[in-house]
Amino acid sequence: MSDGWLITGAGGMLGQDLLARLADDGGTAVGLDRATLDITDADAVRAVLAEHRPAVVVNCAAWTAVDDAESRESEALRINGEGPLRLAEACAEYGAVLLHVSTDYVFAGDATSPYPEEAPTGPRSAYGRTKLAGERAVLETLPETGYVVRTAWLYGAGGGNFVRTMIKLEGIKDTLDVVDDQHGQPTWTVDLADLLVRLGHGALAGTAPAGVYHGTSSGETTWFGFTREIFRLLGADPERVRPTTSEAFVRPAPRPAYSVLGHERWARAGIEPGRPWPEALAEAFPSLVEAERG
Predict the structure, then answer these.
(1) Considering the domain boundaries, does residue 197 fall inside one?
(2) Range of the domain at 77
(3) Per the CB 3.0–4.6 Å rule, which of 106, 124, 248, 291 could disulfide with 244?
(4) Among 127, 147, 213, 258, which one carries the catalytic annotation?
(5) Does residue 61 lie in a domain region?
(6) Contacts of residue 77, Cβ cutoff 8 Å, sequence gap at least 6
(7) Residue ranges in the chain modelled with pLDDT below 70
(8) Is 127 a catalytic residue?
(9) How many CB atoms within 10 Å of residue 279?
(10) CATH of the domain at 190
């Protein structure tokens, strides 16, 4: 086995930033996008691990179309549930650590204080159910070397996301109505990539126990509060952003009203959890504006 890393879903927003972070470390990393590796193909997964013999595999591949999953749950389950199982089986065979990226949607979203890592799950959407299936596959197949990292409200320069959409809309809309009854933690993919790298190193060193971690920024806000901060950073008037409720934007999949995640397990791994979301957004902002306005 090498000391290298293998990233699935490497063409996505998080995968790109993770490869960049590993490159900064000077380590060996192989990135495979969905066109290069179908994680549901057991033979293909085994062949890739046999070829590269990575020390750490990070699964960033996922079905992320939340609303489409409501009518195509079996397809989403194949990628979000069966795919992680195939990766976990191959990691067990070749002795690799697996870091699997999951989501806040595995919770019911009806809490009033941050969800601890061991809180009971209760997904209310097809997407959440399929992601929970993937979590269970990893933890049951790799009880000593399987890691689940739940995240939420991701944004970054390498793909479409809420921040880039708001930057675009600020330039063409006089006012914006934004939901103010959904609470969460905006999280920069660069920060999550750093947490994943440190967790992987901790796993290899034996200092980070296997299991569930929450990879989000600290603090909390609503989509409304998030958008007002985006406008402020743009130098636009935050008063142009007006609060509304989820009832104004009914979608096929229910959105969690409360997606704030607790970060207690990082201390056991000797790793500092995510920094406050406004601090991360301020640092990320120039790259996001450049990516959107180019």
Answers:
(1) yes
(2) 5-159+185-219+259-275
(3) 248
(4) 127
(5) yes
(6) 129, 130, 133
(7) 1-2
(8) yes
(9) 15
(10) 3.40.50.720
